[in-house]
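As a warm-up, study this chain.
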Amino acid sequence: MRAVDIIRRKRDGEELSGQEIKFFVQGYTQGEVPDYQAAAWLMAIVWRGMSQREATAKVQAAYLIGPDPPQAEPLVRQVV
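Now compare it with the structure written out below.
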């Protein structure tokens, strides 16, 4: 599987599999997919859109691969 093939498929309006999306997201987060390819993939998504299944796979891939988000401080502090 190659990032350029995934970009081409999305650009041409095809629906990506969950495995392709996970491969792309994981490759980007590990530095194996360069920024310019990620930008091209996102541009293809903007032009062609994502199916519900693709969007779900993208969120799941980002959630499982990405680091835990930092814990936010409370918006209101208790004053004694």
